[in-house]
Automatic annotation (TrEMBL):
PROSITE patterns per UniProt: METMALONYL_COA_MUTASE
EC number: 5.4.99.2
Keywords: Cobalamin, Cobalt, Isomerase
Cofactor requirements of the protein: adenosylcob(III)alamin
Species of the source: Actinomadura violacea
Similarity-based family: Belongs to the methylmalonyl-CoA mutase family.
The protein, known as: methylmalonyl-CoA mutase
CDD domains: MM_CoA_mutase_beta (cd03677)
Residue intervals of the Methylmalonyl-CoA mutase alpha/beta chain catalytic domain: 135-453
InterPro entries listed in its UniProt record: Cbl-dep_enz_cat (IPR016176), MeMalonylCoA_mutase_a/b_cat (IPR006099), MeMalonylCoA_mutase_a/b_site (IPR058549)
Description of how the protein assembles with itself and partners: Heterodimer of an alpha and a beta chain.
Length: 607
């Protein structure tokens, strides 16, 4: 009988991999692209492939065992979370949002969700949602001892909480009712510019501890910072600062540290950047475990995390692609260890979701839980050298931002002074530039737009109160150009148009003609293709020459002359060369927004 070795080496039959050998092979590839030369030292090769996140976290091309900090599931620093026995197969809480202003419609949707896969309800109440007074009607038929209810009532949080607690008491569900009352005074300040009452939040928490043992009272919501264009570390640093402020308020009101920690839930956004979202949730547990440790909490304290698919990443144009975005984000939330997950319906940017959109949102989670068995694996990302390293780097960056907020006097003071707004605005400016240059492509919007699409029609969603941090979306600049084109088409019977003047055979000009067509269509501009001599019949005044660099040297200047003689007011060229008669260029990495705005102006399209 053969005794298996204690440690199985899967690569035992292969020669050991050497990092320098890998660098040599990479250098060979980079030399062909011009990114490296024969003289480039091997030690610099990896740096050529390394990029930085918006938090300054380096994203390398290769990770090894040396890059991953040690850690085991369920142990400090709580990065690799393990649910208690019996909960692992249940997975996470499928939490669906509801904000319809009609209580009857909301009640019907709530019951449909709970009967078809959702396990809890998230109600937006007051301005921007369902009337607070209608809460008993909305929850008629909902078993409050089984289905957790989460409230989100903004400045009317205390009123909504009282209404819910009265309903729970009336039904005799005090010992079993669960969920969260949604008190978030600092989140309210971030959204509206007006802070809520920490004292009221603390009083609600104390009451929950005394009378409603399974209810939480407080949410530390990070989505306002994400929705304003903030980075992952900026969202995490702010949400931890909010959590610390709430911890101080609750313990100041007489709760023990452990009781106070048990009253706080975190809400953060997850997006289609899979690994960053996974690392964000794991880093949040790391950060909060450190706060709990220095606060004297009992061992094993961990953050309760509600992950919500990003609003900023959702698009109005080609909204069907949102299903793919939210699927990736939900996968990341599950792998990252979220306790509750909310999937925004794919039509969220168009208005109030319909039954189909809510069903798709529910089923996205059901498929991942029941068919992909995602929740049956303890910390699926654990042991990935990249995921472990990214988690640690992100946690360090977030902790640095958190301490900066604390030095400024805490989150309320940092919001009031503009520290948070200025920091996030700078990050948004960098992200916006990358979006404009299509370095962060948006499928269906900045890439592969469909000008013939017919958008689903939805009832308008009630506007949520603003006045605090701005609310942005990644697609907003491109969608504004599409709106401008739509208005022109409605007023004039046709879309603005650019003529693609192709030189040479199809095999030579197709690549750049396709690139130019894709770029101009991202701004709602139709394209027609032909030889330069056909421009006069195109019914437009803007042209773009498309071909190879070799043919540009031979024919670009003459083509530009022919186009201008035929009435072209602007001649673009797809590529980077400079030629007589060519006014501007479009190329990979150019500022597409600037090019499109200029083109619409040249075509006489009103803003």
């Amino acid at each position: 009988m053969t005794v298996p070795p204690e440690e199985l080496e899967l690569a035992a039959a292969f020669p050991p991999a050497e990092r320098d050998r890998w660098r040599e092979m990479v250098k060979g590839v980079l030399r062909k692209s011009g990114a490296a030369t024969e003289e480039t030292p091997l030690g610099e090769i990896e740096g050529l492939l390394t990029r930085e996140s918006y938090d300054g976290v380096p994203i390398a091309a290769l990770y090894t065992r040396d890059d991953a900090p040690p850690g085991r599931p369920g142990l400090a620093p709580r990065v690799r979370e393990v649910r208690p026995d019996g909960e692992g197969l249940a997975g996470w809480d499928v939490r669906q949002p509801h904000a319809h202003p009609d209580p009857a419609v909301t009640r019907e949707a709530v019951l449909a969700d709970l009967e078809n896969g959702a396990t809890s309800v998230w109600l937006r109440l007051g301005e921007g949602g369902t009337p607070v007074a209608a809460l008993p009607e909305v929850l008629r038929g909902v078993l409050l001892d089984l289905a957790p209810v989460v409230l989100d009532a903004g400045e009317r949080a205390a009123e909504a909480a009282e209404a819910f607690l009265a309903l729970v008491t009336e039904r005799g569900n005090q010992p079993a009712a669960s969920g969260n009352l949604g008190a978030d005074p600092l989140g309210l300040q971030a959204r509206t510019g007006t802070a809520g009452s920490l004292e009221d939040a603390a009083a609600l928490a104390a009451r929950c501890v005394r009378e409603f043992p399974k209810l939480r009272a407080v949410v530390a919501d990070g989505t306002p910072y994400h929705d304003a264009g903030g980075s992952d570390a900026e969202e995490l640093g702010a949400v931890v600062a909010a959590g610390v402020a709430y911890l101080r308020a609750l313990t100041g009101a007489g709760l023990s540290v452990d009781e106070a920690l048990g009253q706080i839930e975190f809400r953060v956004a997850v997006n289609a950047d899979q690994f960053s979202s996974i690392a964000k949730l794991r880093a949040l547990r790391r950060l909060w475990a450190r706060v709990a440790e220095v606060s004297g909490a009992a061992d094993g304290t961990s953050a309760q995390i509600h992950a919500v698919t990003s609003s900023a990443m959702m698009t109005r144009r080609d909204p069907w692609v949102n299903m793919l975005r939210t699927t990736v984000a939900t996968f990341a939330a599950g792998v990252g260890g979220a306790d509750a997950v909310t999937v925004q319906p794919f039509d969220a940017r168009l208005g109030l979701p319909d039954d189909f959109a809510r069903r798709i949102a529910r089923n996205t989670q059901t498929l991942l839980l029941e068919e992909s068995s995602l929740a049956r694996v303890v910390d699926p990302a654990g042991g990935s050298w990249y995921a472990e390293s990214l988690t640690e780097e992100l946690a360090q960056a977030a902790w640095t931002w958190f301490t900066e907020i604390e030095k400024a006097g805490g989150l309320a003071a940092a919001l009031g002074s503009g520290l948070v707004a200025d920091r996030i605005a700078a990050t948004w400016a960098r992200r916006r530039k990358d979006l404009a240059r299509r370095k962060a492509p948006l499928t269906g919007v900045s890439e592969f737009p469909n000008l013939a699409e017919k958008l689903p029609e939805r009832d308008a969603a009630p506007a949520r109160p603003g006045g605090g941090l701005p609310v942005v979306t990644y697609a907003q600049d491109f969608e504004a150009l599409r709106d401008r084109s739509d208005a022109h088409a409605e007023a004039n019977g046709a879309r603005p148009k650019v003529f693609l003047a192709t030189l040479g055979p199809i095999a030579v000009h197709t690549v750049r003609a396709s690139f130019a067509a894709n770029l101009f269509q991202a701004g709602g501009i139709e394209t027609v293709t032909g030889a330069p001599e056909e421009f006069a019949a195109s019914a437009t005044t803007v042209a773009c020459i498309c071909s190879s660099d070799r043919l540009y040297e031979e024919q670009a200047a003459e083509a530009a002359r022919v186009l201008k003689d035929a009435g072209a007011v602007k001649v673009w060229l797809a590529g980077k060369g400079t030629y007589e008669g060519v006014d501007a260029r479009v190329y990979a990495g150019c500022d597409a927004i600037e090019a499109l705005e200029t083109t619409l102006d040249d075509l006489g399209v009103n803003e």
